[in-house]
Amino acid sequence: MIVKIVPFVSLLWYLLTTAGLALANEENIKRGLSARLPGMAVESVTRSPFAGLYEVVLDGEIVYTDEKMEYFFSGNVFDIRAMPPRNLTEGNAQRATVGVLAKAGRDFAIKRVRGNGKRVLYTFEDPNCGYCKALHQEFERLDNVTIYTFPTPMLSQNSADKAVAAWCAEDRAGAWDKLMAGGELPAGATACPHPLASVAALAKRFEVRSTPVIFLGDGRRINGFVSADNLEKAFDAEK
Fold first, then answer.
1. Domains of the chain
2. pLDDT tens-digit map of 22-81
3. How far apart are the C-alpha atoms of 53 and 55, rounded to whole Å?
4. pTM score of the predicted model
């Protein structure tokens, strides 16, 4: 028994040690890059499947660097062991997108839940945008979905006023629904602290230049109006 236990203990020690070293290397690289690139946000560092290569989320973009942080390169990394080859960079970028949107959605979005809410959408909408209002009607045909809407006024000051009024209403979701259905400001709306500046920064990060823009729960992006039927197909294609 001793002969069998010792190799197991040695293996366990090796796995724990290498895991600790990997974590230490990732943390060291994050600190080193932050020092070398003070004007950029090093959001995460992850060891890639390739020896000596690390994936870095830098100002929202995925790049790769070596252990010595001497070189960067951008582009897609494919796993050709799978057939067809699997784009590792694209999948990781989508997961990073979802992580950012999920965190922002808790603080900066108007949340509506239909049915069990298991399926998730993140939307950027202007309250005066005609296509956004048409999209809102399509949302009414969806069930079992949670919709996080980032109020994104781009068209006019009136859009910003309406977005603030909806955010400051006692029932934000209800106020937004009324705006998108008929364009009416909530009765008795008053100003309050609001996240429009934070939403604008988020929109800039994801290059949202017009509305509506939709992100699915797996990070895929849809620009512009889309029907409920096509949204259902997109949900069915989620990984």
1. 2-75 (3.10.450), 97-236 (3.40.30.10)
2. 445 888 888 888 888 887 778 888 887 777 888 888 777 788 888 888 877 777 778 788
3. 7
4. 0.72
